[in-house]
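> @MW can you paste both from yesterday?
MW: sure, first one:
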Amino acid sequence: MSIEIRNVTKHYGSFEALSNINLTIPKGELVALLGPSGSGKTTLLRMIAGLESIDTGEILFDGQDLSELHVNQRNVGFVFQHYALFKHMTVFENIAFGLKVRKRSLRPPKKMIEKKVNELLELVKLSGFANRYPSQLSGGQRQRVALARALAVEPKMLLLDEPFGALDAKVRKELRRWLRKLHNEIQVTSVFVTHDQEEALDVADSIVIMNKGKIEQLGSPSEVYDKPASPFVYDFLGSVNLFHGRLNQGKLQFGSTQLDAPDYLHATDIQAVGYVRPYHLKIERQNYSDEAIPATIIFMHSIGPTWYIEMKREDSDNYVEVELSREEYELLQLQLGELVYVSPKEMKVFIPEDFVI
């Protein structure tokens, strides 16, 4: 099932939760709604499900406007962050619940329900757990039961609201890989909400980045990360160093440093900001060019194979963070308190939105 959202707006009193949202989700895709708290992602998901009303606009499933249809009529599977399993029911009974409560005319025979539940237990790798209760399962196992229950009614789309948010980091990583594999097998249109950038980049076919009730960018994981459309996207998706200066004929100037900005060859004295990822900075002991930024090393630490070097710039009170591989770090033999020179291997320049060229 494809999902098309047209000009959707939502207010809670004077607060605008969503502002003129337009989005198309192709059939069979796994799409992440990614953004900070209050960005509108959960509100949008609940509107797709039919759990929230729409002020203006429309939502279409396979070209049919279902904006006025109740959640029970949308054939949607919904998975919440906190499982919402029935504590007094076994795993089998939880998964079978949606099938057993159907109207008699639509309810499958008992043998068919049993076959379906056993197939789902196999699919979510929980064969042998049918007679256990939720209290006897780990958090990851409970979430897989919740997903199996959502799939039991054969939904045309699957909606997941922070599905792994209550789990620890290792379990989250295991489950998101499992979800990606599961989605490839069942090919049901899926939308999941998350504030975890790594989770979205790892799992989704495409990512919708939201901010203050609007869509900042839509694209594949590589597109949104490598080609951010706005300062917000660049800053939200990972660590970044900011260099505030002025553009002049293809150069971003601050202090005695000039960084190349080839997209702005005709700019003259325009305020701008250069964005550089920590791993796009190189460290040298000598000043070889105008692009070198003098900085003093104030802290170094490693996490696994990566070394993080924090420095204070000599030309301002600002700080710079550089990421080095273990091999690069060992080759440089850096020392605390040492004056070095950093320069970008890659940089994206943004002009403030309120500035008119």
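MW: second:
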Amino acid sequence: MYIFKLSFLQHDKLMSLVAKTITDKPTLKLIRRYLQAGIMENGLVKPNIEGTPQGGPLSPLLSNIMLNELDKELERRGLRFVRYADDCNIFVKSMKAGERVKTGISKFIEKKLKLKVNQEKSAVGKPSARIFLGVSFYRKQNEIRVFVPQQRKERFETKLKKLINRNWGVSMEERIQKTNQLVQGWGNYFKIADIKTYAIKTDSHIRRSLRACRWKEWKKVKTKYRNLLKLGISEEEAWKNANTRKGNWRISNNPIINLALNNRYWQEQGLKSLATVIS
């Protein structure tokens, strides 16, 4: 498999392709101004002389217009491929064929389309070793499956860690709201992958972290004791655990605290489950 990433899209080449379909001059002028809109860096506007604005609503469409000729060339050569904007995977049978295709297609892209191939992100390799739109692929019992690479999980976990950190001084309501937004968005995007076991493990970690946050919020022994009683814990166990010297993280895994602040409790607080989002 050959995967490549493009960069340095030339505005003049793109506009010439757009002009083949769009003849309205004000529209063409507006698109040109959109492409050349400045980039704010350290409080200063930097001119944009190439490429499309990152995250712009028109960027994927303009990339498709630019790369329509590439699609036709790949079809003409009888190659199997999948492309999304400027990310493209070309599937071949061997590493040798991949290297040959890489050389030929890179030459076509740079000479015919006047684009620059990002060599750092372009490579020949097995599908399981490459990332496309955040996921990778593997074979299981003659079936192609999707999995989330470790680096994508680590990126998600880094964001999650900030939200469920006990030292972040926000209310539980805001903490849960922000966590839900992250879990919902990440889960909806990666639900096509085999992440059920990972989701269950992540949900468990989130609930334990939130138990530690809640325990820290209660602070005083009397507050802990009173709240444990309200949550159905016996007087003896409530008093014993309210007076514990264990730290917040350690007590969050205590069976009694786990029983009081159980899954149903967090559901009532509005916490979303990653396992539920992907199901």
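> thanks! Residues 196-218 form the longest helix (23 residues).
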